[in-house]
Amino acid sequence: MQTTPQIRTRMSKQKSRDTEVELALRRALHAAGLRYRVHRRPLRGVRREADVLFGPAKVAVFVDGCFWHGCPTHATWPKSNADFWRTKIEGNRRRDRDTDERLASAGWLAVRVWEHEDPLVAAERVRNIVLIRRSKRPQRKSSRRAER
User: What is the pTM of this model?
Assistant: First the structure.
């Protein structure tokens, strides 16, 4: 079964970045005193972009849509063109797992936030992770100039 023109049009209008959920999370993170980069690739040569990136702490935050990433709580499997959508969503899940593994092997932590999560609660979770990882970073040696 083919996707109808109406569905194709509706899906093409779905934002992939700067969604309401992302913006709410970023506002909450900023209000909590955190500064970050937006829509950056944590690893060179890997075409995966984090929604929010904390470089020095090596934390990459991904805001996952319930439909597109197969949320265990809210995902629904479409009845129209079911094989296509199951393949698409399961492929997204595989890519997410691969991304998390690649980041972990490079010393990064991937944090997944579902679109249905309360942005304030998610921001607090991210904040705690970032602060813990910042505190575990080795301190840079003071320069000779500071010792004089």
Answer: 0.83
